[in-house]
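Hey team,

Filing this mostly as a record. A colleague (T.K.) asked me to run one chain through the structure pipeline before their review meeting, and I want the input and output archived in the tracker in case anyone asks later how it was produced. No errors, nothing strange. Just documentation.

Input sequence:
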Amino acid sequence: MPTYATLINWTDQGVRSVKDSPKRLDAAKKELEKLGGKLTSFHMTQGMYDAILMFEVPSDEAAAKFLLKTGSAGYVRTTTLKAYTEAEYRKILEGLG
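Output structure:
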C-alpha cells in the first residue's frame, strides 16, 4: 500500500484551538480507516513544521481525498511526499543497471 509523509503546519485557527488537536488526530485516523488506510505514525515536532504524519492508503486518489478533507477544515496546512519503503527503494534502484 502506498505510504505518504505529510509535513503539517497549524494555521492561526489551528493554534487557537490546539487543545482540541488530539480530537482532530483521532478523526483523521477514522477517516484514513474509512478510505482503507491507516495512520502509521504521528510526531509533534519543533522547527519549521509542527507535526509529521505518516500514513498508508490504497491509492493516490485516496490520499488526495484525505488531504483535501483534512485541509478544508482550516486547522492545518500540509506538504505531502509519497514515500517508498526500503524494499521499494532497492527494487527501484535495481533497474538502474
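Quick notes for T.K.: The first strand starts at residue 3 and ends at 10. Strands lie at 3-10, 38-44, 51-56, 76-83.
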